[in-house]
Amino acid sequence: GVGTHFVPSNLMPKVEEAICNESSLRTAPVGDKKQLVTNIVDSIVGDNKAVPEFSLSPYLAQISKCFGSHVTSVEDVLGQLQEDGSEWALKQHKNLLGFSPTSLKLSFALFRAGAKLTSQEEMFKLEYRASQHCMETNDFHAGVTALLIDKTGKPIWKPADLASVSDEDVRRYFAPTSHGVEWDKQRPFPQ
């Protein structure tokens, strides 16, 4: 998502309540709503806007080394993490191995493609297509079932390993949607 305001977590309930109770937000023109929200946030947060230190700050050099633009594939990322060998890197390596191989390769491709795009609109279109294709695949349903329904935490991915996910498999996620509806900034949430 795109962040527009910072609110300390302890003040979120007050901000949420104030926004929900602000009747003028229901009738205000779209262009005025952001200012109304800003006024509400400012009135509650006041000078308490210090953004806490980024939780990954201690790992930025490792993140750059293992995930940077010089890394050419998911397999390369995994290799870099293993080579790093630190507790943090090995934890990330283990976590990544638990995810859908297709989703790992798709996420990698989306990051690379996104870096070349020139507008948020292009990125939203690309991500919308990918999300719609994800909903049509085994892995989305396997992940939801394993996590939320069966609660086994052990989804059965198809394909089950990175080597079995081809570049063509990943390219399909960038194709127009099967239902013919595309993301549109005038209608960002298609019905």
The SSE string, one letter per element, is HHHHHHHHHH
Q: Number of helical runs?
A: 10
> Approximately how much beta-strand content do the residues carry?
under 5%
Biggest β-sheet strands, sense, barrel: none
Distance between the ends: 20 Å
Helix content: 55-70%
Integer average pLDDT: 90
From the alpha carbons, calculate the radius of gyration and give it in angstroms.
Answer: 21 Å
Q: What kind of assembly state do the chains in view correspond to? A: single chain
Layout: helices, strands, pairs:
Blueprint: H1 12-21, H2 24-27, H3 30-45, H4 60-67, H5 74-84, H6 87-97, H7 101-116, H8 120-134, H9 138-149, H10 167-171
Helix pairs in contact: 1-3, 4-5, 5-6, 7-8
Structure explained in plain terms:
The protein has 191 residues and is mainly alpha-helical. It is built from ten helices and no strands. The longest helix has 16 residues.
Short précis:
This protein has 191 residues and is mostly helical.
Descriptive labels:
191 residues, mainly alpha, 10 helices, 57% helix, globular
